[in-house]
Structure formats: structure tokens, C-alpha cells
Hints:
By secondary structure, the chain is mostly helical. The chain has one domain: Alpha-Beta Complex (Eukaryotic RPB6 RNA polymerase subunit). The chain contains two helices and no strands. It is elongated and about 50 Å long. 11% of the residues are buried.
Amino acid sequence: MINKEDYTRFERTRIISARALQIAMGAPILVKTKSGDPAEIAKLEFEKGILPITVRRHLPEKQ
């Protein structure tokens, strides 16, 4: 499992934006918040580490 600190800024942006789109399309929200902004909700879920999203990295093989 990758810690949230181990993601690159590009992975972090992609994860949060994908989750914000899911929320905007009606996916259940996993945190209690008063904010109605999908991007803010996705950021909060990311910070709490409860996003239902997995990152797969394809790394080059060692020789």
C-alpha cells in the first residue's frame, strides 16, 4: 500500500479529480462535510486516506 505522501503531484491531482467526478455524478460521499463542492469533498477524502481508488505503477524491470 502506498502512503498519501508517496504519490507524485500528478498522481495526487489525477486521484482527486477522478474522485470529484465520481461525486459529481452521484457517487456516495465517504466523509461528513457541509461543503457541496465535489473537489473539496474529494480532497478531504484523500487527506483522510479513505478513497476507493487504487494506483498501479508500471516500473521498469531491473537488469
